């Protein structure tokens, strides 16, 4: 992930107790990096990308869960969300070579050169793991901001209902008209896109090319992992696919930046 994480906890707990909560969050983030960092040659995912085309490879429970969810939503998003787009000689059928065994919790790549990249998903998954930690410590009010692109808001700010997220410019929120901010209450805001016309990093599964232009797209959902899937899918989708996905999944707040 290699991203800054801002944590706000609003609680009557002692400072020592809250520091323990933060330390627990840091531990889980380090674990996720070791598990699913595509760019770390020593991560579990990197090792799988190197060997899963030779023989089935046993997965940790968390990596199995991540890959299984991504394959499920590849189907549900009309192929717009595809974690194999960085594979060698990629085609829209490459993802079909990823074979998961629920019984053995293994993965096998039927096609050599297939790789899985979870970079467009991992921060949202991390938000859900952080949510579990906060619930285990009975933290009722918190804001977690990962790199200004993946935000988890739980409960309320000390001075009002929900948590205000300011975009710095007027936006069309879809459900509230136009404003320069959103109020999140037990919700996640996830953003995908290009920071500039030069910094392109998302590949369209339909064209196998980088999506051009300086634009971003954000969605509000109740689950960070699913939110990452939707923001990425909607960003790479064409207009017809985007409209269909918004309607199919009842996405009430979709923001074009």
Strand and helix layout:
Layout: E1 5-10, H1 15-36, H2 44-51, E2 57-58, H3 61-76, E3 98-101, E4 106-109, H4 122-136, E5 141-146, E6 150-154, E7 163-172, E8 178-184, E9 187-193, E10 216-221, H5 224-236, H6 239-248, E11 254-256
Antiparallel strand pairs: 1-5, 2-4, 3-4, 5-6, 6-9, 7-8, 9-10, 10-11
Helix pairs in contact: 1-4, 4-5, 5-6
Pfam family, one: ApbE
Cofactor: Mg(2+)
Organism: Bacteroides faecalis
Structure, explained:
- It comes from Bacteroides faecalis.
- This is FAD:protein FMN transferase.
- It catalyses: L-threonyl-[protein] + FAD = FMN-L-threonyl-[protein] + AMP + H(+).
- Its cofactor is Mg(2+).
- With 257 residues, this protein is of the alpha+beta class.
- The protein has a domain at 141-256: T-fold (Roll).
- It contains six helices and eleven strands.
- It has a six-stranded antiparallel beta sheet with strand order 1-5-6-9-10-11.
- The radius of gyration is 19 Å and the shape is globular.
- 34% of the residues are buried.
- The model has no long low-confidence stretch (mean pLDDT 92).
Please give the CATH class of the domain at 141-256. Alpha Beta
Find the count of extended strands (DSSP E, 2+ residues): 11
The first-to-last residue Cα distance is 22 Å
User: How many whole angstroms does the radius of gyration measure?
Assistant: 19 Å
Strand order of the largest sheet: 1-5-6-9-10-11
* SSE order, one letter for each helix or strand: EHHEHEEHEEEEEEHHE
Question: Helix proportion of residues, in percent?
Answer: 25-40%
- Using the alpha-carbon principal axes, give the shape: globular
CATH superfamily of the domain at 141-256: ApbE-like domains
Q: Classify the secondary structure makeup into a structural class.
A: alpha+beta
Oligomeric state of the chains in view: single chain
Poorly predicted tracts of residues: none
Major β-sheet annotation: 6 strands, antiparallel
Corresponding CATH architecture of the domain at 141-256: Roll
The CATH topology label of the domain at 141-256 is T-fold
Whole-number mean pLDDT: 92
Question: Helix count?
Answer: 6
Percentage of residues in DSSP E strands: 15-25%
């Amino acid at each position: 992930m290699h991203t800054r994480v801002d944590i706000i906890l609003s609680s009557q707990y002692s400072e020592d107790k809250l520091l323990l909560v933060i330390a627990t969050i840091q531990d889980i983030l380090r674990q996720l990096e070791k598990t699913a960092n595509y760019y770390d040659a020593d991560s579990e995912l990197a090792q799988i990308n190197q060997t899963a085309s030779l023989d089935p490879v046993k997965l940790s429970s968390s990596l199995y869960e991540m890959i299984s969810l991504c394959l499920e939503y590849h189907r549900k998003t009309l192929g717009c969300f595809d974690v194999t787009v960085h594979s060698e000689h990629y085609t829209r059928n490459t993802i079909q070579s990823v074979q998961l065994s629920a019984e053995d919790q293994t993965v096998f790549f039927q096609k050599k050169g297939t790789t899985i990249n979870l970079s467009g998903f991992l921060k949202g998954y991390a938000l859900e793991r952080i949510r579990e930690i906060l619930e285990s410590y009975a933290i009722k009010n918190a804001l977690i901001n990962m790199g200004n692109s993946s935000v988890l808001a739980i409960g309320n700010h000390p001075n009002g209902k929900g948590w205000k997220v300011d975009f710095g410019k007027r936006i069309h929120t879809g459900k509230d008209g136009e404003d320069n901010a959103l109020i999140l209450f037990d919700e996640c805001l996830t953003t995908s896109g290009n920071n500039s016309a030069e910094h392109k990093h998302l590949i369209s599964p339909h064209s196998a090319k980088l999506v051009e232009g300086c634009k971003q797209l954000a969605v509000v959902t109740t689950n960070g992992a699913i939110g990452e899937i939707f923001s990425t899918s909607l960003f790479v989708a064409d207009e017809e696919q985007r409209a269909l996905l918004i309607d199919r999944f009842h996405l009430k707040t979709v923001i074009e930046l």
